[in-house]
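A quick aside before the break. I want you to see a complete sequence-to-structure record at least once, exactly as it would be stored in a machine-readable document. Don't worry about memorizing anything.
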Amino acid sequence: MTMFRKRLIELLLNTPLTLYDIGKRLDIDKKEVEDDLRHLIRTLKRSDYKLIVHPARCHKCGFTFSAGHLHKPGKCPACKGTWIAEPLVEIIRK
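That is the input. The structure line, written in C-alpha cells, reads:
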C-alpha cells in the first residue's frame, strides 16, 4: 500500500469527510480524491479496514442517493431540487 493511501486511511479513520474536505487537507483536486478512493476501496478488501459512504441527501425533500456515488449529484431525481448535501466517506475497522 502506498504512503498516500496510508495517509488517506489515517485521515478518514472514524472521521467522515466530503471529497472537497479531503482534497483541501491533502492539497489535491477532488476528482483525484474520488479516483484514489475507488482504488482504496479495492485495497481495503484485504485489510482490517472498511470504507463507509454516507450517501448524499436532498435537503428539500429528504431523498437519499445511492451509497455508490462518491460525488455530489447535480439535482434530486425526486423533486428536481439542487440543495443537496455532499456524501461523506470514512474508514472504520472491521
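Two observations worth writing down. Strands lie at 49-54, 57-58, 84-85, 88-93. The helical segments are 3-12, 19-26, 30-44. We'll return to this after the break.
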